[in-house]
Design brief:
The complex is a heterotrimer of chains A (402), B (230) and C (240). In chain B, 26% of the residues lie in helices and 7% in strands. Chain B contains six helices and five strands; from the N terminus they run αααβαβαβαββ. The chains are: A alpha+beta (402), B alpha/beta (230), C alpha/beta (240).
Chain lengths: 402, 230, 240
C-alpha cells in the first residue's frame, strides 16, 4: 500500500502502513513463498450475509484471520434509477428518490427538490423551509438511532439495541404516515414547497416526541456507551485520518470523526439552516468509536434544531404560488444541489434541455463514496473488525448502487 | 365377526370435512372437540406434521432492498413475527425453510438468489414480498432488473405493496401457514416436497453479454395467454 | 474565490499550452464550468488542488454524459435575380451536416480547507466510438476512484492511469454501456400486470406476436378473471 501509483494518491501524500492492535509495526503481510506458512484464503462475504447491510459483497483475502486485501463488489442492487429518470418527468422521479436511501426518504426528497429548484430558479416559502428542516432532522434522528442499532448487531448484541431503536423509529414513522400517507416512502417534498401541511395536532405530537427524545438517548447511552466490550472492540479499530478522508471524498459523520469540520449545513447554509443555533461535533481519533459517538452527539444537536424549529415555525403557505406543477419544463441549463443527509453529502446533478424529462440525472451517493477507503481502514484487522468498520460507515445499498 | 353373520351394513358415510379443521378418522369435528375437552387428543400424523412445520417456519435472513426494512420491522417488538414462530432468521440457507424475497431482484443478484434457493433443503417455501419481487415493481424499465423472481424459482405467496406494511407480511405468513396446514402427504395432490419428480433445485442463470442466460426458466414460468377483448 | 472568468485567466496564464474554455450555463443556476483539454487535465487538476488560493482538495462528484451525434440543418437564404425581370426571389439552400457527438466527464470540485466551491471542470472525448480515452484524475483525488469506474461501466469512457479500471455496477461479462442514449435494453416485457405507457407498448408487441387474432386491435392488459389460477401462482400439481 506504500506504492502511490497503486493507492491512487500523488507522491506528496504517503499512505500509512496497516496498524494492528495498536502496535507500531504490528503483524505484517507474510510472503506466500514461505514454506512454513499456509496459503492466503479468499472469502467472499456477501451478497447474502447477515452483516453486510444489504446486498453488498466484499471479497476478502485473509492471512489466518487478518485481512490482507479487501475488494468491494457493487451492483447487486443496481436498479437503473438514473436511466429511468431520463425517461420520466422531474416530478415522476420524486418517488424514486424515496427508494434511494430508503431509511431517509424525507431528506433525499429534499435534496432532489433543492437541485430542481436551483435548476429552475424556484423559490420556496418560509413555512415550507422550516417544515423541510423539521422533516430532515427527524429523519436524522431515525437514521442515527437505527444505525447505532445495526452497528451493535454487527458487534454481536443480536438485536436488543436495534429493538430499542426501532421502538423510537415506529413513533416517528407513525408521524410520517399521518402526514404523508406512507411510513417509509414519503414522497413529501415538491418543487417549491411541501405537499401536505401538518395539522396542529400533528405538530403537538411531534413536539412532544422530540422533547422526550433526550431521555431515550440517555437510556440508549447508559446501555451502550460505556460498555467495556464495545470499547474494546471499537476503540482504535478502523482508523482514518483526515487528510486521506478529504482526498477520498468522504463526507458526513465518517469525515467529522476524523477531525475535519465540514458540514454542508454550515458550509452551504441551504434552506434556513443559518438561522439555527447548533454545533457540529468533531472526533479526534477517526476510529469506529468516534464514528459511533458522532451519531450520538449529532442526535443531540438535531434535537436542539428541532426544538428551535417547532418554536419558530411561521404560518403561511407551504407551496410557492408561482410553482408550476403541470407542464414543468425548466429552462435549459444545469445545476448541482446538495444537502447534508444523515450519511454524508447527498447531491443531485441535473441537466435540463428544456423538455419535461431531465437530459441527465445524476445522484452523488454518499454511501458509495464513503466506501472508497474501506480497504485501507480494514487492512491488518480481523474479519470481525471488518464487519464493525463497515457498520460504522453507514451504507444503504439503495444509494450505493442506485 | 363369524362367517354366519348377516352381510355387514354399509359403512356410515364419512363426515364432511369442514374448512380449516380437517377431521381425523371417522369422527366429526364436533366429536373431536368434545373429546378434547375431556383431555383426549385425536389427530393424524399428517396434521401433526403440518402443524409443527407451519408454526415454526424459519425464514432465511435475506433482505435485498427497502422491503427488507419492513421485514426487520415485522421482527421488532411492535409487530412481532415471533408470535408466529418465525423470529429465528437463519443466516445460512441450509437451516432455513422460508425465503422471503424482499426487495428488487437485479439480474446481477438473480444467480445468487437461485443458488440460495437450491441450497435450502426441502420442504421450502418462497414468499415474494413487495412489488419488485413480484414483477419488477417501479423499476420495471430497468435493464438490470429482473421482472419478478418467479421467473426462476417457484413462489408460494405474493405480497403486493411498495413496501407492504409489516402487517401485510404477517398476513402473508399466516396464509402460508394455512397453505402448509392444508398440504397432504400422500395421494395425487401430495405436497411438492414429497414427490421426487418435482425438482427442488433449479438451474442457475449465467451472466451473458447483454442479459442473463437464460433470461427466464420456462419450466418455472410461462407468460399467461393474453385475453383479448371479445 | 474567483469567478469562472478569473479562474480561466489564471489557468490560461499558468498553462499557456492548454486549451481552457469557459462553458456558460444558461439556466438560472448560473453554474459555469471550465472545459479542459485532456492532455493537460492532470497538471491543471494538480494545480487546482495544491494552489494556496484555491485548495480544491475535495472532488465531490464525477458525472458521465453522453452527447450523441446531432444532425444540424443549415438553411441559407440567397436572393436570386429573376431572369424575367421581376422582383428577386429568395431561394433556400439546406445543407445537413452531422455534428459529431462525444462523451463527457464533469467534475465538481470544492474546497474543504477554504470552504468554497464549486469549481466545475469538464473533459470531453474526441468521439463516441473509438477515441474514448480521458486521463484519470484518481491520482489527484482518490474520490474519483469508484465514480470513474462507474462512468467507464455505464458510458465506456476509458480513464488512462486509473489504478483499477473495471466495471463497478454491472457484471464483468456485460458488454454494453447502458447509460448511453443509443442503448437498447433486453426485451423481457412478456407479461405486465399493470402495463401503461411505454411498457404497455412493449408488452403489446409480445402479445400480438403470441396470438395474432384477426380483428382484435388491442389485446389489452392481461386481467385475470377472479378465481382462475394463473400459471405463475398455481401449485405445480394444479397446472393443466
Amino acid at each position: 500500500m506504500s506504492d502511490p501509483q497503486v493507492s491512487g494518491l500523488s507522491p506528496q501524500v504517503s499512505v500509512p502502513g496497516p496498524t494492528a492492535f495498536g502496535q507500531p509495526g504490528g503483524p505484517s503481510v507474510r510472503q506466500v513463498r514461505d514454506p512454513f506458512h499456509g496459503d492466503l484464503l479468499e472469502v467472499s462475504m456477501g451478497p447474502q450475509h447477515p452483516s453486510t447491510h444489504g446486498v453488498f459483497r466484499m471479497v476478502v483475502t485473509l492471512d489466518g484471520e487478518l485481512i490482507v486485501k479487501l475488494k468491494p463488489v457493487f451492483g447487486y442492487l443496481h436498479r437503473n434509477h438514473e436511466k429511468i429518470a431520463e425517461n420520466t418527468t422531474y416530478l415522476g422521479s420524486m418517488p424514486y428518490t424515496d427508494r434511494l436511501d430508503y431509511l431517509c426518504s424525507m431528506s433525499t426528497n429534499w435534496a432532489y427538490a433543492l437541485a430542481v429548484e436551483k435548476l429552475a430558479g424556484q423559490a420556496v416559502p418560509d413555512r415550507a423551509q422550516y417544515l423541510r428542516i423539521i422533516m430532515a432532522e427527524m429523519t436524522r434522528l431515525v437514521n442515527h438511532s437505527c444505525l447505532v442499532g445495526f452497528l451493535f448487531n454487527d458487534l454481536g448484541t443480536s438485536f436488543t439495541p436495534l429493538l430499542y431503536a426501532f421502538r423510537e423509529r415506529e413513533k416517528f414513522l407513525d408521524l410520517f404516515e399521518a402526514l404523508s400517507g406512507s411510513r417509509m416512502m414519503c414522497n413529501y417534498q415538491r418543487f417549491g414547497g411541501c405537499r401536505v401541511d401538518p395539522s396542529p395536532a400533528w405538530l403537538a405530537t411531534a413536539r412532544a416526541l422530540v422533547e422526550g427524545y433526550p431521555r431515550f438517548l440517555d437510556e440508549y447511552e447508559r446501555m451502550l456507551t460505556g460498555n467495556e466490550i464495545m470499547l474494546a472492540r471499537t476503540q482504535g479499530i478502523g482508523r482514518l485520518d483526515g487528510v486521506h478522508a478529504v482526498n477520498a471524498g468522504l463526507t458526513g459523520p465518517v469525515l467529522r470523526a476524523s477531525g475535519v469540520g465540514y458540514d454542508v449545513r454550515k458550509v452551504d447554509g441551504y434552506g434556513f439552516y443559518p438561522r439555527f443555533d447548533f454545533r457540529v461535533p468533531l472526533g479526534a481519533h477517526g476510529d469506529t468509536y468516534d464514528r459511533y459517538m458522532m451519531r450520538i452527539l449529532e442526535m443531540r444537536e438535531s434535537v436542539k434544531i428541532l426544538q428551535q424549529a417547532f418554536r419558530d415555525l411561521p404560518a403561511g403557505p407551504i407551496m410557492d404560488p408561482k410553482a408550476k406543477i403541470r407542464g414543468f419544463r425548466p429552462k435549459p441549463g444545469e445545476a448541482y444541489g446538495r444537502i447534508e443527509s444523515p450519511k454524508g453529502e447527498l447531491g443531485f446533478y441535473l441537466i435540463s434541455d428544456g423538455s419535461p424529462n431531465p437530459y441527465r440525472y445524476r445522484v452523488r451517493p454518499p454511501s458509495l463514496i464513503n466506501l472508497t477507503l474501506l480497504e485501507e481502514m480494514c487492512l491488518g484487522h480481523t474479519i470481525a473488525d471488518a464487519v464493525v468498520i463497515l457498520g460504522s460507515i453507514d451504507i444503504v445499498l439503495g444509494e450505493v448502487d442506485r | 365377526m363369524s362367517e354366519s353373520a348377516p352381510a355387514p351394513l354399509p359403512a356410515p358415510p364419512r363426515p364432511e370435512r369442514t374448512e380449516g379443521f380437517p377431521a381425523a378418522g371417522n369422527l366429526t369435528d364436533v366429536e373431536r372437540e368434545e373429546l378434547r375437552r375431556h383431555g383426549i387428543l385425536l389427530t393424524s400424523l399428517e396434521e401433526l406434521y403440518n402443524w409443527g412445520r407451519s408454526n415454526s417456519i424459519w425464514p432465511l435472513q435475506f433482505g435485498l432492498a427497502c422491503c427488507a426494512i419492513e421485514m426487520i420491522a415485522a421482527a421488532t417488538a411492535r409487530f412481532d413475527i415471533a408470535r408466529f414462530g418465525a423470529e429465528i432468521f437463519r443466516p445460512s440457507p441450509r437451516q432455513a425453510d422460508l425465503m422471503i424475497v424482499s426487495g428488487t431482484v437485479t439480474k446481477k443478484m438473480a444467480p445468487q438468489v437461485v443458488r440460495l434457493w437450491n441450497q435450502m433443503p426441502e420442504p421450502k417455501y418462497c414468499i415474494a414480498m413487495g412489488a419488485c419481487a413480484i414483477s419488477g415493481g417501479p423499476f420495471k424499465q430497468g435493464y438490470n432488473v429482473l421482472k419478478g423472481i418467479d421467473r426462476f424459482i417457484p413462489v408460494d405467496i405474493y405480497i403486493p405493496g411498495c413496501p407492504p406494511r409489516p402487517e401485510a407480511l404477517l398476513h402473508g405468513l399466516v396464509q402460508l401457514q394455512a397453505q402448509i396446514k392444508g398440504e397432504k402427504l400422500k395421494g395425487p395432490d401430495a405436497a411438492r416436497h414429497t414427490r421426487p419428480e418435482e425438482p427442488s433445485e433449479f438451474p442457475v442463470p449465467e451472466y451473458g453479454a447483454h442479459d442473463l442466460e437464460p433470461p427466464k426458466n420456462p419450466a418455472v414460468w410461462t407468460p399467461p395467454e393474453p385475453q383479448g377483448k371479445a | 474565490m474567483d469567478t469562472v472568468e478569473q479562474l480561466h485567466d489564471r489557468l490560461a496564464a499558468r498553462f499557456p499550452a492548454a486549451h481552457v474554455a469557459v462553458v456558460t450555463n444558461p439556466g438560472p443556476a448560473a453554474e459555469h464550468s471550465l472545459l479542459l483539454d485532456p492532455a493537460h487535465a492532470h497538471d491543471i487538476a494538480l494545480f487546482l488542488r495544491d494552489d494556496p488560493a484555491l485548495r480544491l482538495d475535495y472532488c465531490s462528484n464525477v458525472t458521465g454524459i453522453d452527447w450523441p451525434d446531432k444532425e444540424i440543418t443549415d438553411t441559407v437564404k440567397t436572393s436570386v435575380p429573376d431572369p424575367a425581370g421581376g422582383p428577386p426571389k429568395t431561394v433556400e439552400q439546406k445543407t445537413v451536416h452531422v455534428q459529431p457527438g462525444c462523451l463527457e466527464a464533469v467534475y465538481h470540485l470544492y474546497s474543504m480547507a477554504l470552504k468554497h466551491g464549486p469549481v466545475i471542470i469538464r473533459l470531453r472525448t474526441a468521439n463516441r466510438t473509438d477515441r474514448v480515452a480521458l486521463p484519470s484524475l484518481t491520482p489527484v483525488w482518490r474520490a474519483c476512484d469508484f465514480q470513474e469506474r462507474e462512468v467507464y461501466d455505464l458510458y465506456g469512457i476509458v480513464f488512462e492511469r486509473h489504478p483499477d479500471l473495471r466495471r463497478l455496477l454491472m457484471w464483468d461479462e456485460f458488454k454494453d454501456h447502458p447509460m448511453r442514449k443509443d442503448y437498447v435494453e433486453p426485451d423481457d416485457y412478456e407479461w405486465e400486470p399493470t402495463a401503461h405507457g411505454a411498457i404497455l407498448e412493449k408488452a403489446k408487441a409480445h402479445q400480438s406476436a403470441a396470438s395474432p387474432v384477426a380483428g382484435v386491435a388491442d389485446p389489452g392488459p392481461t386481467i385475470k378473471a377472479p378465481g382462475s389460477p394463473s400459471p405463475a401462482t398455481a401449485r405445480p400439481e394444479a397446472r393443466p
